[in-house]
Amino acid sequence: MRKAKIILKEELTVFEQEFKKAVQSQVPLLDRIMRFIVNRKGKQLRPMFVMLSARLSGPVNPSTYRAASLVELLHTATLVHDDVVDESYERRGFFSTYALWKSKISVLVGDYLLAKGLLLSLDHKDFRILQLLSEAVRLMSEGELLQLEKSRSLNFDESVYFEIIRNKTASLLAASCAAGAFSTSNNEKIAEKMRQFGEKVGIAFQIKDDLFDYGNVDVGKPTGNDIREKKITLPLIYTVNHADSSTKRKLVYILKNENKNPEKVKWVLEEVKKSGGIAYAEAKMNAYRDEAIEILNEFGNNEVTEALEELVRFTTDRKY
Asked: Which residue of 61, 70, 78, 181 has the fewest CB atoms within a 10 Å radius of its CB?
């Protein structure tokens, strides 16, 4: 991400100031929680995608900064709500909002962030950008619910998996790129091209996230956690669909009935590695990465496309 941070050095400074202003509240408790959230922000990948997508057509403008702030507000709101749903006490190596303020306040904080994002766009008449990102929130909710439904029935259909991650994860990154592009181009064709680019990057990003569950790198969650939560990810789908009938029955039985047993989970992890499930998922991830870069190449070779390609490769090469 070094190139992106160099190119966007001034823009990122302005964005941080704008985002702090966007979350301010006159309610002391809420303002304290907002400062807590701002001080523990992540890598700011999505705002960088917004601003670099904008830079393809012109300099970053006030509409771009609002789009980047809206993206970060929506993303943060979903994380706050996710921690309540998952009863998670940790986020990015720190206590989560849920751990410190529990369910009721956390839900209201998430709602506040969503409302602030909507008002930020409405007050400045950024209707198209708000439409793009509101659509992403709808898709994210549908993706989460579809995942819950399919986890209960242990659905191993690969097309369903891709529908889930396209909605749950990729939709927000797709909308981020589209919104950034539209903020400077006001061109629907360019925005749609960048939406497709962002969707492919988002899918690759989620496959990488799923692969962490089968590795030994400390990513803030225990290895095998997805299996314990009955999340059906691509390496597991490949393994089940290519196993002999005896192994398949054993895999399904463990996932249904023994997914909390450490030894059984370990056996599933080893079976996935042995079957080629990891290699298959990595190949799919790299294919989506390469398709995203092909779209990027249509915009020529310059410092902005180079920085975007660096971000794309970061999503698949990252260690956490």
From this structure: 61
